[in-house]
Give the backbone structure.
Amino acid sequence: MHIDLTQRVAVVTGGANGIGRATAHRLARSGAHVAIWDLASSPGEAAATMLASEGLHVQFVEADVTQRASVDAAVSATIALFGGIDILINNAGITRDAQLVKVKDGSIAGGMTDDEFDAVVAVNLKGVYTCTQAVVPELLKRGGGRIVNASSVVALNGNFGQTNYVATKAGVIGMTQVWARELGKQNITVNAIAPGFIATDMTAKMPASALAAMQSHTPVGRLGSPEDVANAYCFLASDFAAFINGAVLTVDGGLVIGT
């Protein structure tokens, strides 16, 4: 299946590293003009420069998805670069893991702070809302488009120590399904992906024993790669997915809790 995104303009939030960078690469190799939106300017510029060196149409646009003024400026900058927007990949996300309440020897020994909760909500949930609301008017000008949001398998099953992260990723699924209903008649499809355990810089910092446990719980016998997720993003952004709307595509190697 050859995906052709020639003449399409795609925005990838959190595109400076990991899954976002792989997604920017995949979309650009399919012919899209890609704007990498990220707050990390040095990695973002480096990613755009690397991809442009391959002859791909990729530019970096500094954007803080938690700030509406920054997002609005990124929309304007992207339009100035490429003339419009057809695809929005809401990939930006962070973690601030902690137990809701940590108990040691029968006493409270800590727990998630308000700052940890609020920071994750600001990026992973409100950031998706803000970027989508800012970009939809541009999709309407183009006669439609594609929005793909990053959820997670933990949104479906929960995960120890991730109250904030799980709440945001479950919320993303809810918003995806609402927007699919609201925007479908405007020729804008809205879908989500739910990655499982993916080998990124973040997971590389985890203990080897934890990584082995993740792998053992994944039926295909390996962690996912950023490219596995990028391929799913690219498919849902393409014409092959024109009749897929409001779906959540798991990209998890068949992960089943307890296997």
About this structure: The first strand starts at residue 9 and ends at 13. Residues 24 and 247 are 22 Å apart (CA to CA).
